Amino acid sequence: MLLSQLTSSKITPQHFNRQALIYVRQSTLAQVRQNTGSTSRQYDLKQRALKLGWQPECIIIIDDDLGRSGTSALNRDGFQWLVAQVGLGLAGAVLCLEASRLARSCSDWYRLLEICALTDTLVIDEEGVYDPGQYNDRLLLGFKGTMSEAELHWIRQRMDGGKLAKAQKGELQQPLPVGLVYDPLGRIVLDPDEQIAGAVRLVFNLFDQYGSALAVVRHFNQQGLKFPTRPRLGSRESQHQQFLSQSQATPRWEPLKHGRVRSILHNPFYAGAYVYGRLRQIKTVETQKLDSPTKTRLVRLKPSEWPIVFLEHHPGYITWLQFLKNEQQLDQNRTYRFEERAGAIRKGAALLQGLLRCGKCGRRMRVNYLGNIQGPLYVCNEERIRFGGNMCQTIRGDGIDEAVARCFLAALQLAQLEISLAAIAQLETQAQQFEQQWKLSLERAEYEANLAQRRFMAVEPENRLVARSLEKDWNEKLARLEKLQQEYLAKAKLQAEVTSLSGEEREKILALAQNVPAVWYAATTTQAERKQLLRFLIKSVTLLKREEEGTVDLDICWQTEAHTVLKVKAPVLSCNKYRTDINLLDKVRQLAVDHTDGQILQILNEQGWKNSHGQPLSVARVRGIRRDFGIFLGSPERPGKLGISQRSDGRYTVEAVAKILQVDPSTVNDWCVAGRLDNVQLRKGGTRWIKLSSEEIAELGRSILRHKHKRN
Fold this sequence. Notes:
The structure is a single chain. By secondary structure, this protein is α+β, with helices and mostly antiparallel strands. The strands form eight sheets. A five-stranded mixed beta sheet has the order 2-1-3-4-5, with helices on both faces. A four-stranded mixed beta sheet has the order 14-18-19-20. The protein has a three-stranded antiparallel beta sheet with strand order 15-16-17, with helices on one face. Helix 17 (416-458) runs antiparallel to helix 19. Pfam families: Recombinase (PF07508), Resolvase (PF00239), Zn_ribbon_recom (PF13408). One of its GO terms (molecular function) is DNA binding.
């Protein structure tokens, strides 16, 4: 039987009554733009469907998946819609150029064939018509699907093998970072553009100075400096030609960002090393996302895990040792896994932030700031956070910081001259870097303006269509040059005020460096700068608090691995520091027997007593001491108002005696004046305190009765 007869026997009128679905797909957008021939061949399948007998209105072209990979049905809306139409029995045939267009995965391919067999849907490609319901056709289609999936892996294996073979020789060309370019022979060299190379060197110099990527960004932004970036060029030329064209493209200058600085510092090509395999793909399953349960992400490997590394492969901006040092510094700046790294320097008051370790458990101590406590609070609570245990140690940090600072300053006394010279050199270096970068920026802007002028002058005056555009470009370049000049003058004036040194200022710096403590405690020195200086010499400080002795042991580990042990007095708790003096309590208790609060205050101030804060006492404070410690005032100023009738020494007020003897208070006053009653009066017109015994009460009682009998 002829092939045409066999083909026609598989297609029945029932198939013509249903849709003919033509599936069009390209794996990448680059293939859609460049491989137009393959796309056209897939669209031409419409003519094949017409020749086979389908009507134009029954032919549907599905091209939703152009630019999408066929490795999975996920994120392929066109393929999913095609499967749905087949499953509903609306499709008579599925047309594709080859099996690889429909699926590169056997699971997706066999699922489609199973549904086609159930709904009597044909599969048609350039070579023939297949009925998945027939075993021979289904077996052949199965082979095609298997070969399609295997082809994908073969292609990838050959390409990856070729790349790996070249990479093992250090010959595989990779996209280079800004500051490195390929020469015509394919070798990696430093960018010949002085401005670009200077900007890259400045990033590494500033990071070496500050130790923080964010500090580098702040410096660039404060000085008004920009950083270059080169555009990625898409081309059908060879890879070497692409990279060469990219290195020759005009750079674009943009403000420096934190992520850009980190990518520069992490790139080993700047250290003259050729590295391949810095990233690794890891696939994870996300059960919460039903539409795409698998996720592929790139993980950055550690330098020790890189499979291919060639040191001193090409010229670099830093050495390999400097690169490893930068990697270590960046790792220490991370806040992830706090107990393993010191972290970046912050602006807080804690001088030992990131350096202090607990002497009990060895973990790094945290820093807390409480509103009612002046200064930082060092806390080791990892045991409680992780395992619900007890807190190891908690201590105020002001006294600890001061003790370590004194030890640090004492160590610096031996290097005062070197410090002074380094301070002057740093200011001069900053001024040179600022001047160099702005000079190159102005030079580039002037070149672009002159180039635009030459282009304008070279055009024929009659060709106004071109002349107008060139004139506009020339004016824009001139405006940009003028703007840069104005910015440079403003920045240069500010920079000169900061970095320019006269002879007198140079002598002052030398004098200040000879007195390091004055510089350390100066108001212009920030806490972040003090921490940076401290980390230059000190690696860590171990703290052990001895409660029974009231002391703290500090073990300072210097960068040279030498150790210095300090024993300082433990900070006194506020409740103990401001506790009322026991001698003052005894004095108040003694005076309260027969003195008022005002009289007690006068006596205490005359004797020089102070409160717990070192301030003079007040009546309110004296009254508060008596109230807090339960001291009864034997001579209140207004006993009647206070409800007091008897003093602690047994003396009564006039009113109390009058009630006891059942006489008028004036009678009691008369007896006091006449001397019949033992009384004391602390001040003229003040309260009389009367000593009254039981015998006196009996005698006065009889006298009162006799007086009443005489009147009667």
